[in-house]
Write a structure and sequence with these properties.
Number of domains: 4
CATH superfamily of the largest domain: P-loop containing nucleotide triphosphate hydrolases
Shape: globular
CATH architecture of the largest domain: 3-Layer(aba) Sandwich
Largest sheet: 8 strands, mixed
CATH topology of the largest domain: Rossmann fold
Oligomer: single chain
DNA sequence: GACTAACGTTTTTTT
DNA sequence: AACGTTAGTC
């Protein structure tokens, strides 16, 4: 552990942050200022100072961030010490807490965690059951209102809209009846246990004497309260973040946590990291000039440790076709001219819909590219289905997963039977599964439906017995179950393409496979379901594993960096998004653009179009009001026509773009 | 109960 | 344009 890290390799501010181990500390880490390095060094410093690893808690926002942090610290100190620390997300910390003590709140310890799609399923049911509303209300709308209420500490019944309040109460009762919690409940109940039980709270405070919270600008007020419960005197807490990069306000993040940190912990030491190692001066100057238009921020001026670099280009485009072509052509030319890798290029956009034209242009030119984000692995139908079966094998009384797969694959238990069973279960205050098992209920069904139900019950009960009584490997049982009911052929029938068929098959396989690995580690089915519910895992989230230029949303780009960045669609209505103007969140849109700009290391090009295809319809566009806020000093305003001349041939294009670098770029 | 056709919607995304 | 949802038909 001797050479864990060296103070010499850190700058003044970083050194101060790494050295300040005691008391409340807030590190304001601007983009590209070596935040991760500082935080990991600080924790390594703790270990070097003989603070036991077991007393260290680091909370992150995603599981990926948690494992990366553990790995980096492991590289600096011993693997053993890294393994002994607790590095996890707020949610998984609460799961641990609740598996131990949720019975104090009247839940059973084997509670299940509702994923988003579970919540939607439940809310859809409630909307049907409650009816009553003249307008059609979307499940997501209600759920987000409930979520915001929970995060603000408002009781479901006290929601402003009566209809929503009614739904919220019903939703909460439903969760309760199924012994289930949603993501917000994890935090809510975790905080409640700590607050109401001094013995539990003291135990945690004894256990975790040093708490670090990463990405602090993304915490909501409930998470702040949780931190306050976790951290007792003498408040050895360190929060790290950048209010200028707070872009998740729409899902409850409270910048106030950073802006008013002094209110939560007394006399914090506040350290600013402003020395930027990532970008050229031109890029940073432009970023600084934009973000200073936001009011009520912790002012930070990023300083470049590098040279001026090329000016930042703002290019006016006739339309989105030209925009895509321009970028694709320029990437081809640049790559050849200065020997770049495809991976050095990134195109950033506000909405996923903007990627289509770009993909097309890339494919035409055989430019390899990687798309980040899009569809979550856990939202894939076959994955959700198989997880629903897995959950039934733990608790068949969970209504949402049961109803989800009751007729998937088709087994002759359709909507009408499902409705009858649900109604019966409500009247008799029991679960849908219990209703299906009840001969009194099945006798009310027609002979065909009755047989189908009985076969279904036998199928699930049989599999459950093989796990519970015969102690067979749950992964084997699940695998056999899937084959027995011919799930794969059923889902394949609905596929249009071969690649889709293959994808479905792989989805099913990987769920079973990851369950098997879980079991091999000695964990049970329940903990597998917990992990799956809390896992963010995008299909191939590891950007590094994919090859090619990057196409990515501004949100997903946070934390990444690229030598050459194109930021497209700087149009009023897109960036800032029209919705933000209605909702009065233009500041956050400005931060979003700030995040985008600060992703660039060497070269940045921002584009806007005069017209753009939107929802299959051509719409006129105005330049973003943000463009006018940028300082001109390192800007180069130009147009598509200026660069291209009048409609050159492809050959001319190639030649032209080949020489473009020489014409435009002030190469250092 | 299963399949098809018309319809409406469309920011960002994690746990 | 493309997707999911819903209503209508066999």
């Amino acid at each position: 552990m001797a050479n864990a890290f060296s103070f010499d390799s850190l700058n003044q501010a970083q050194r101060e942050a790494v050295g300040a181990l005691d008391g409340p500390v807030m590190i304001l880490a601007g983009a590209g200022t070596g935040k991760t390095r500082t935080v990991t060094c600080r924790i390594a410093h703790m270990l070097e100072k003989r603070i036991p690893a077991s007393e260290i808690l680091a909370v992150t926002f995603t599981n990926k961030a948690a494992s990366e942090m553990r790995e980096r610290i492991g590289g600096m100190v011993s693997k053993k010490a890294a393994a002994a620390m607790t590095v996890c997300t707020f949610h998984s910390l609460c799961v641990r807490l609740l598996r131990g003590g949720i019975d104090r709140l009247g839940y059973k310890k084997n509670f299940s965690i509702c994923s988003h799609s579970d919540q939607v399923g439940m809310m859809k049911q409630l909307l049907v059951r409650k009816g009553g509303s003249d307008e059609k209300v979307k499940p997501d709308e209600v759920l987000s209102a409930i979520s915001k209420a929970k995060n603000k500490g408002i009781e479901p019944g006290d929601l402003e809209d009566d209809y929503f309040a009614n739904l919220a109460v019903a939703y909460q009762n439903e969760l309760r009846a199924q012994n289930a919690v949603d993501f917000d409940d994890l935090l809510l109940l975790g905080e409640k246990i700590l607050r109401e039980n001094p013995d539990v709270r003291d135990m945690f405070r004894q256990q975790y004497k040093r708490v670090t919270v990463d990405e602090f600008q993304d915490t909501n007020s409930l998470q702040m309260q949780l931190v306050q419960q976790l951290v007792g005197e003498p408040y050895h807490v360190c929060v790290v973040g950048d209010d200028d990069q707070s872009i998740y306000g729409w899902r409850g993040a409270e910048v106030a946590n950073i802006l008013q940190f002094e209110k939560f912990f007394p006399n914090p030491k506040i350290i600013r990291l402003e020395e930027n190692y990532r970008s050229t001066h031109a890029v940073l100057h432009t970023a600084n000039s934009l973000i200073k238009h936001n009011v009520g921020r912790r002012e930070k001026i990023l300083r470049s440790t590098r040279g001026n670099g090329d000016p930042v280009r703002i290019v006016a485009m006739p339309g989105d076709n030209e925009e895509a072509e321009f970028i694709a052509e320029e990437i081809m030319a640049e790559k050849g001219a200065i020997g770049r890798q495809w991976e050095d290029f990134a195109v950033l956009f506000r909405t996923n819909g903007q990627s289509r034209k770009l993909e097309l242009a890339f494919r035409e030119r055989k430019i390899p590219y990687r798309m980040v984000g899009a569809q979550s692995f856990y939202d894939r139908r076959e994955v959700r289905d198989i997880l629903a079966y897995a959950q039934l094998l733990v608790s068949p009384d969970a209504d949402v997963p049961l109803l989800r797969i009751l007729n998937a694959p088709n087994r002759g238990i359709g909507q009408s039977t499902a409705v009858l069973a649900t109604e019966w279960s409500r009247e008799h205050h029991e679960s849908v599964w219990q209703a299906l098992c009840d001969p009194e209920f099945t006798d009310t069904l027609g002979p065909k439906a009755r047989t189908s139900v009985q076969e279904f019950i036998a199928l699930i009960a049989g599999a459950k017995n093989r796990i519970d009584l015969e102690k067979q490997n749950p992964a084997d049982v699940l695998d056999a179950l899937i084959k027995e009911m011919e799930y794969l052929p059923w889902i394949e029938r609905a596929c249009k393409t071969d690649s889709e068929r293959q994808q479905r098959g792989e989805g099913i396989f990987s769920v079973v496979d990851s369950l098997r690995k879980h079991v091999e580690k000695g964990k049970n089915l329940q903990s597998f379901l917990d992990d799956s519910a809390l896992a963010s895992d995008r299909e191939d989230d590891d950007l590094e594993k994919k090859q090619g230029a990057t196409l990515i949303t501004l949100h997903a780009s946070k934390g990444l960096e690229f030598p050459i960045v194109f930021l497209v669609g700087l149009e009023e209505g897109f960036l800032p998004h029209s919705r933000s103007i209605v909702e009065g969140t233009k500041d956050e849109e400005r931060r979003l653009l700030y995040v985008g700009i600060t992703r660039a290391q060497d070269q940045l090009t921002m584009t806007y179009c005069s017209k753009r295809l939107k929802w299959g319809q051509e719409t006129g566009c105005q330049p973003s009001s943000f463009i006018g806020e940028l300082d001109d000093e390192h800007l180069n305003h130009t147009t598509y026509d200026d660069i291209l001349g009048a409609a050159p041939s492809t050959d001319e294009l190639d030649n032209f773009f080949g020489g473009l670098k020489g014409l435009l770029g002030d190469v250092e």
